[in-house]
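Reviewer 2 asked us to include a model.

Predict the structure of this chain.
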Amino acid sequence: MKFQKLGGAGLEVSALGLGCMGMTWAYSGGTESGAIDTIHRALDLGVNFFDTAEVYSPFTNEEIVGKALRGKRDRAIIATKFGFDISSAGKIKDTNSRPEHIKAVCDASLLRLGVDHIDLLYQHRVDRQVPIEDTVGAMADLVKQGKVLYLGLSEASATTIRLAHKVHPISALQSEWSVWERNLEIEIVGTCRELGIGIVPYCPLGRGFLTGTAKRAEDYPSDDYRRREPRLQGENYDRNMVLVEKLRVIATRHAVTPAQVALAWLLAKGDGVVPIPGTKQVRYLEENVAALSLVLDPTEIADFEEFSTPGAVAGLRYEEAFLASIDR
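Predicted model (C-alpha cells):
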C-alpha cells in the first residue's frame, strides 16, 4: 500500500481510503455484516483510512465502523464529521457548529466509535451563523484535550479555509472531486496547495455514475439518494453518458474498468490527494484498490481533461436546497 501525507501536522494515511457512508445511508441495499466484512478486507489490503459521520443514518454508521474496528484500532485512521443538529430520534435539523455543541457531539462520537480519540475531525458543513474562528477554536480545544488528533473541513470556501487555518492547522479538506465534478479546481485546490492542506475527494466515482453501471434516476428505489440526483435525470443522464463512454475507451485500452480509470485520474493529481470511494461490497473495494497500480499516459489525461472541463457535466451535482448548504 502506498501512503500519503495530509497537511503538515503529521497525518499520514493509505493512498486510498474507504468512504463508509453508503454502508448505511443514501443508497439502498447492504447489511451490517457485509459492511463489517468490507472494512476488514480493506484492512487486509492495507487501507487504513475510514470515513464516517454522525449524520450518516444518523449515528448508526459510526457504530458499525466502531464495531468493525474493535480490536483493530491500531491499524486504523478514523475520520468523522460533526456539524448538524440531530434529534435523539435521528431527525436532522439545521447546521450547528456552536462551540458547546461541538464538544458535546465529539464525546458522543467517541462513545459510538468505541475509541478514546478521533484521528481526524471534520466540520461537515460550514455554519454561517457561527464564525469559523469560533468553530475551529473549539475543535482546537479538543486537540488539546487529546480527544482529537487532526482537524479538517468539508466543502469550505477558499476564504473559510484561510481563516480556519490561521486559528489551527487544517490537515485536510474533504470535498467532492472527480472527473465529473471538477469545480474544486477553479480555486480550492490551489488554496489547499498553497497552505499545505491535504485534499480528500469524496464521491470520486460520481455516486457510481463513473463505474458505467448507473441507472436512470427513476429506476432507483425511493429510499436511494440517486433517485433525486439531477445528473441522472432525463436529458442530463443521456448527455453525461458520453463522459462514461470516454472512460470506457481508455479502460478498454488498459484492460481495466471505467471506475479504475476515474480513480487513476484523481490519484495522478499529485501528493496530498487521497480519494475515499465508498462501497459496501468487497469486490468493488478490491477493484478500487487495484486502481493504485494503474498509470495513465499524460496524453490520455490531457485528452480526457479537455473533454471534461469544469462545468461540462449536465445538471447540478445536488438538489438546489442541498447545494445551498455548501460554502462556495
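The CA atoms of residues 76 and 202 lie 19 Å apart. The first strand starts at residue 3 and ends at 6. We have added this to the supplementary material.
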